[in-house]
Amino acid sequence: MYSLLSRYYDLENAAFTEDLEFWLELAEEYGGPVLELGCGTGRVLLQIARRGQPITGVDNAPEMLARLEEKLRAARPLTPAPQLLSASIESFFIPQQFALALLPFNTFMHLLTLEEQTAALGNIRKHLAAGAPLVLDVVNPFLAYAAEEQGLVLERSFADGERTVQQFSQMRLERAAQLAHITWLYDSVGPSGDVQRLTVPLTLRYTFPAELRLLLEKCGFRLAHLWGDYDRTPFSDDSLRMLALAEAI
Question: Per the structure, how many domains does the chain have?
Answer without folding.
Answer: 2
